């Protein structure tokens, strides 16, 4: 439980500040061909943190792991940011055209491509929002042209929260412990985390080859089968059936679940949230989306224990399905 609190706190506090800019920045600095793949490498980084924690939990104390892993990721993240140029579109919207041009020169392969992109930014920047205060921007998103993009941007990642993926990631060792099967919960967690990392890479690669809706639907269906199977295992276990012949099912169900979410749902969810927003409200709109997302993430994680008591373990996972 205490490890869950550590990870919930880190995920909640850091993600609240870092999620929106870490999604918007790759979209703004990368070329269109690689935008989806680069944007979703953020999820790969998050998954790597969980996997490191699963690995270390069997080797060192949770307090040491809680200090060591953030230190590793923080230092490497800071070193990476030192060489990343500022967003060209952010600079351009603030009338710093020379700096925007120089920033593009650092990340594009030709001067011709930079000049073409500068022209495109000028065309997209027809509506001047750089001097507007936050309450003026808030009024803008209620205008007819912005309502539907904003609704989609908020709903797609927010609905993904209700699949319970954050809860499973945080409480994964506990979930395996509840199954009561003989398999080692430590190695089951490591195996599940490794598959999550693998499917993060697969999902990021598929973004440039598959339609967003196809990935969302297929990923959701795969996750549904996985988490519903896990709920079924708990149901029959609570009915005192002998589950020794299917002791492999919890691990297989969790792997299928993380494959659907990590490979199909999360990669396009955040990318769609950023892509549907017009460029002049993207940063502000992603801030709203991130606020709703992190609030729901907290509520779903916070209510897990109470929901488990009320509905039983099988009811929780069936509700997620």
UniProtKB/TrEMBL annotation:
Membrane topology term: Multi-pass membrane protein
Keyword Transmembrane belongs to the record: yes
GO cellular component annotations of the record: membrane
Transmembrane spans: 41-60, 66-84, 146-173, 185-207, 214-236, 248-273
UniProt GO molecular function: transmembrane transporter activity
Cellular localisation: Membrane
PROSITE patterns found in the cross-reference section: MFS
Coiled-coil portions: none
Gene3D superfamilies: MFS general substrate transporter like domains
Keyword RNA-binding in record: no
Alphabetical UniProt keywords: Membrane, Transmembrane, Transmembrane helix
Superkingdom of the source species: Eukaryota
Name of the protein this chain belongs to: Major facilitator superfamily (MFS) profile domain-containing protein
């Amino acid at each position: 439980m205490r490890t869950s609190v550590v990870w919930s706190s880190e995920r909640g506090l850091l993600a609240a500040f870092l999620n929106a800019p870490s999604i918007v920045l790759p979209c703004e600095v990368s070329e269109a061909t690689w935008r989806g793949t680069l944007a979703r490498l953020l999820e790969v980084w998050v998954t790597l943190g969980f996997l490191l924690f699963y690995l270390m939990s069997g080797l060192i104390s949770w307090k040491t792991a809680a200090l060591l892993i953030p230190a590793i990721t923080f230092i490497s993240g800071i070193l990476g940011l030192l060489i990343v140029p500022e967003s060209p579109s952010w600079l351009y919207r603030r009338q710093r055209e020379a700096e925007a041009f120089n920033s593009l020169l650092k990340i594009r392969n030709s001067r011709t491509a930079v000049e073409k992109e500068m022209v495109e930014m000028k065309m997209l920047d027809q509506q001047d929002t750089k001097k507007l205060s936050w309450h003026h921007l808030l009024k803008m998103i209620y205008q007819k042209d912005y309502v539907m993009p904003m609704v989609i941007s908020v709903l797609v990642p927010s609905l993904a929260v209700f699949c319970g993926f954050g809860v499973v990631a945080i409480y994964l060792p506990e979930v395996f412990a509840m199954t009561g099967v003989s398999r080692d919960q430590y190695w089951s967690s490591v195996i599940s985390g490794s598959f999550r990392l693998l499917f993060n890479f697969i999902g990021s690669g598929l973004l440039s080859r598959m339609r967003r809706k196809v990935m969302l639907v297929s990923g959701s269906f795969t996750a549904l089968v996985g988490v519903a199977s896990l709920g079924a295992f708990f149901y029959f276990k609570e009915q005192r059936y002998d589950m020794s012949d299917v002791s492999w099912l919890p691990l297989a169900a969790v792997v299928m679940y993380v494959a659907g979410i990590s490979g199909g749902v999360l990669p396009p969810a955040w990318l769609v949230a950023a892509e549907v927003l017009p460029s002049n409200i993207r940063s502000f709109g992603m801030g709203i989306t991130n606020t709703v997302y992190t609030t729901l993430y907290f509520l779903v994680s916070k209510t897990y224990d109470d929901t488990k008591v009320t509905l039983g373990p099988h009811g929780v996972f069936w509700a997620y399905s």
